[in-house]
Amino acid sequence: MDEKASVTIHDIARELKISASTVSRALNDNPRISQATKDKIKSLALKMGYQPNIIASNLRNQKTNTIGIVVPLINRHFFSSFISGVEDVAFASGYNVIISQSNDLLEKEKKIVQSLFSNRVDGLIASLSMQTNEFDHFQLFTNKNIPLVFFDRVVPELEAHKIVVDDFAVGFKATQHLIDQGYRRIAHLAGPTVLNTYHDRMEGYKEALRKNNLTVEDELIIFNRLTRMDGQEAIKQLLALPHPPDAVFCGNDTSALSMMVYMKKIGIRIPEDFGLIGFSNEPFSEVVTPSISTLQQPAFEMGLKAAELLIREIETKNKTQNYQTITMPTELVIRESSLRNAPRSA
Amino acid sequence: MDEKASVTIHDIARELKISASTVSRALNDNPRISQATKDKIKSLALKMGYQPNIIASNLRNQKTNTIGIVVPLINRHFFSSFISGVEDVAFASGYNVIISQSNDLLEKEKKIVQSLFSNRVDGLIASLSMQTNEFDHFQLFTNKNIPLVFFDRVVPELEAHKIVVDDFAVGFKATQHLIDQGYRRIAHLAGPTVLNTYHDRMEGYKEALRKNNLTVEDELIIFNRLTRMDGQEAIKQLLALPHPPDAVFCGNDTSALSMMVYMKKIGIRIPEDFGLIGFSNEPFSEVVTPSISTLQQPAFEMGLKAAELLIREIETKNKTQNYQTITMPTELVIRESSLRNAPRSA
DNA sequence: CTGAAAGCGCTAACAT
DNA sequence: ATGTTAGCGCTTTCAG
Question: Which GO terms label this protein's molecular function in UniProt (chains A, B) (predicted)?
Fold first, then answer.
């Protein structure tokens, strides 16, 4: 039942009474090897069940053909779609992908980045954890000029490529929509504003209020981590206000959902009494009742772009030094939870 | 702006005028090195920004401290929870995890397994794609006695460890529940029955009917891939029958949801006119209206178990040769979509 | 077109 | 307690 060590190019070489370098070249389709010997070698390799040892190859080549991804949670539709986009491009270009999740924990993010570096990934694609407020761990990559692309949750001070959406415009658009629907006292549930995404969405929200001569009130802006629990706490807090809001723009769909569940329970009608809009178009937002209006980001396409950009960087190392920021379009998905009037002209 | 090659143990050794092996030993806390030199070496390593080259270490040690996971889709709550379970155990035991998704495609699954093998993972945890009807690609692992654990979607003919739930019992339980609720003509939407999960669920369904003196009718059992689209097609087909069913037990929540959406649209009331039960407790099933009854599998715990089993195998290589099958408990989650009567005594 | 030899960075006998 | 040496499996000059 036991087995001997793996078959290596040396085993093949010995069998064929040729040198290991010839075997290596043949298997890599080096043009300097005659078709005849290539055929001979390849068929023997097959017969002997040869499997290249990528580790050895990687060590020798100083290249792993692997790209690392760090996301907060693979469990979110936005992130898993993004990952699928990355994988498509990566596999088509001959790269493997190592996926890791930080669980929104800074310490875990650090360990992961460390580990991906030690494993010598050729490039890294990352979206920051909610806790991330320092960035030294990424210097491992920047110091050694290993390509690095951030997406979604990025910070301005990072000198790297970035794939984002225009969160300011999105925040504005969402808020304007609520205003158009006749809501007048609009609250906002924001995530940690160290992260540009949450910061910009909030600023867009404020700007929309101002443009419409509505006042921005601190008590209507709540900051937390946007979990289900956080959403419920936030809506309780808002409704307990002397002068409660009549709508909320939530930083994600999860918190919007939990607000909705709570309000249904206590008899607040959506959208008649209260307007609600989420963010990121999680699959559930379409199927709950009432369905939740939200903002759709092109997650898959962002993944494609991120991978393309990263791989181009990897393969033209040290050519460019100017960091690109690619802003992708978003779409306002209007559903029942915010639709009190007939839809306005687009 | 440019940088030189990485600092290696040789650089440290040269600086300190000692040998590379001493450096290596010190960094690995080998007891044969004096504390004084250890301190000296470690602090210099830190100062020089030394980062171990795991690739070289892996090559030398013939061990990567990495375990591979293949799942159909990381995007499903069941799988992502499972993965989190694996990660918890793996990280605690000093292993990295490489996650890959087959997208339910046999060809992609083969490539992934191949690639994980070439990357010399120390062990593999896998759940089969819906298309998987041959298993030769896993022989790479079995032939070389590399530990292998299957979970959820497994097949009997594979000689390997398995983490499963008792799908037969679960199918029975779900069907019995519908019968208890007074439904009498119960259909079943099944996935590919090459996979034990779907096969066993279906057999459990049949057995429950028989035990209750209900006849098993072929026209009430539909096979497909359980996508949203598949669910809709299936319910149309069932409702078009001369003698349509009054309830369905669906192989997953996704198809149950799409059935529900369709039936709501055409005015069939759930659960009054029609009973529905899904499988796997996706988060949305709780929040849709009516909420969907379903079966809950202990995904996270299954991940823990799988990782524990795999790592034990890795670390006691060739000790055991008898394959374990661990069956985990499931829970019937009764919600609105199947609850026509008052709940029976548990 | 093919071979010999060196080396990627690390570890582990086997020295001393 | 530390050094010497060899080698993990592969690729790639350099030679012919």
Answer: DNA-binding transcription factor activity; transcription cis-regulatory region binding
